[in-house]
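Sequence only, no structure available. Ideas?
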Amino acid sequence: MSNNSFPYPLSALEEKIGYTFRDKGYLRTALTHSSYSNEMRTKNVDIECNERMEFLGDSVLSIITSQYIFGKFKDLPEGELTKIRSNAVCEGALHEFSTELSLGDYMFLGHGEERNGGRSHKAILADAFEALLAAIYLDGGFLKAEKFLLPYITVKIDKLIKQGRREDYKSLLQQFVQKSQGEILEYVLVGEEGPAHEKCFFFEVRLNNTTIGKGSGSTKREAEQRAAREALILFGELSEQKDNE
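Reply:
I predicted one. C-alpha cells follow.
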C-alpha cells in the first residue's frame, strides 16, 4: 500500500497526533476501511481493514477513560460515572475527535465509499479514531495511547460536566441545601391536568415543609427541574437573566 493512495502523507498525520510509529503498518491498517480492503481483494491483493483494530481500540478507549473518570470524580456513584463515560466516548464524541484531526483525509476508502462521502461519514470516522488509538497502543504501549487520548477526553468531559451543571438544577439545589445539616428537601406533586397523552404536571419543591419553588412541565422531571430552578433563583444561586431554560 502506498502513501500516495490519499492526499496527505502519513508523516503529516503523525505530526498531528504527536506520535511517530515504529511500525507504519499499524497506522496504515488503522486507516484502511473495509471498502478499500474488499476492493483490493477483487484484484487479488490482501490488505487488512481496520475492523479488528477498532475492536481493540474500543477496549483501550474504555479503560483509559474509565481510569481517568474514576480518579477525577472520587465521590460519584457508579451510575454517574457510567453516564459520563458513555457521553465522552459515544459515536458523536469520537466523530468530533476525528474531525479535529481531519482523519478522513488520510483514510483508504473504496471508490464507492469515496463517492458516497465516506471521508466525512460519522460512523466511519468514529471507528477510525478507535482503530488509530489501538494502533498507537500496539506500537507504543498503554502510556503512549493514554498520552494521545487524554487531551480529547478531558476537554470533552469538562464540557459535559459544565453542561450538566447548567441543566441539572435539582443536583445544584441539593448541593446548596447540603451545606447546612439537617435540612429536608422534597419535591411534591401538587396537581396535573390534561389528557393522558398531553399531561401537564405541577410540582413544588419544599425545604423543611416551606415551598421555595414551583414548576410545571409535560413530564414530572421537567416540572421538578423548573421548581428547583426557581428555588435557586430565590436563593441567589442562579441568575434569571443569564439562564435560558
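The longest helix spans residues 142-167.
Hope that gets you unstuck.
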